Input
Amino acid sequence: MKIEEEIKGAESIGIGGHIRPDGDCVGACMALYLYIRKVFPTKKVEVFLEQPSEVFRCIKDMDKIRTDVTADEGCEGSFDVFIALDTVKERIGVAEALFDKAKKTINIDHHISNPGCGTVNYVDAQASSTSELVFRILKEENLDEEIAKAIYIGMAHDTGVFRYSNTSPETLQIAAKLIAFGFDFPEVIEKTFYEKTYVQNLLLGRALLESILIMDGKCIVSGIEKRTLDFYHADAKDLEGIVSQLNMTKGAECTIFMYQTGVLEYKVSLRSKGKVDVSKIAVYFGGGGHVRAAGCTMNGTFYDVVNNLSLHIEEQLKQAGVIE
Ligand code: AMP
Ligand code: MN
Ligand code: MN
Output
C-alpha cells in the first residue's frame, strides 16, 4: 500500500486512532497527518484523538488534534477518506461516526485481534507497531525531521524501546533511517517513555507493593482503585508503564493489571512473556491486542475479575506444561 495511491482524488481526509491513545497511536496518527499536510497542502486533513498525554507535546502540531466532532462533520460534511490507525473502528471513540460516514475507509493496524474494518485494510500482526506500517506506506524522500520523530516515538513505545520480541531487523533498520533525520532521540525517549512525575512513581510503587502472586508465582496481579486515583488527583494516563514493570517479575509468566473505571468496572491490561496468549483471553472478554500485550474492560469486583481471568490463564499454563 502507498498512501499516494489510496488518497488520490480525495479532497478531505480524516484520521483517527483508539481511545486512551498510546505512543504508537499518537505517533502513527501524527506522522500520517503531518505527511499528508506536507505532501498534499491543498487537501483538507483532520486528526481526531482523545486528549493524549502531555508528554507527546514534543511532536509537531499536537495542538491541531481534534478531540471533539462538531455538527458540520456530523451532518453533511463527511470525509472522502477516513483512516483508522492502530485500532478497530469500535475503539475510535467520538470520531467513529465519521469513519462510518466516509466514502472510503482505510484500516492500518498490527493487532492480531483485528480482522480489518475498512474498505481497504493493511493489517500486519508481525509488525512492531502501526507506526512501522505508516513508515512503509510513505515515500521516504518526502519525510522530514518532524514526521520521522513521530514515527520513531510510535515504534519505540510499542517495542518498549526496541527490546520486546516484536522488534524485527526491519524495525531497527527503519529506526536507523529515522534517527538520521537528526532529532534528539535520547531526549525524546527519556521525556515520553521513561520520565515519570512524582505522583506517577508513587502509583507505580503502590501497584508493586500491593501486588499479589497467584498460580504458584506464575501470574502477578495488581490494581488501582478509583479512590486511589482520586486521592492523588491522577487519571489513567498516570498508570502507563506499570503493567510492564510488573511483568518484569522473575518467574511470572503473565501479568494482570487493572484500574477501576466505574462501579464494578475495570480496565484490564494483560501482559505475557510468550507462553500465554493474552490476546485470546482479551478477545474472549470483548477486548483485543497482541499475544504478549492485550486489554479489555471487565465488570465485577477486583476479585471477580481476577477469578474470571485466572481460569483462562490457568488453562493455557497447563497446556504449555508450566503448571500441573
Ligand atoms: P493496554 O494494556 O491497554 O495498554 O493494551 C495492550 C494492547 O492491547 C494494546 O496494543 C492495545 O491497543 C490493545 N488493547 C487494549 N484494550 C483493547 C480493547 N478493548 N480492544 C482491542 N485492543 C485492546
Ligand atoms: Mn495502541
Ligand atoms: Mn500499536
Q: What stands out?
A: The chain has a mean pLDDT of 97.
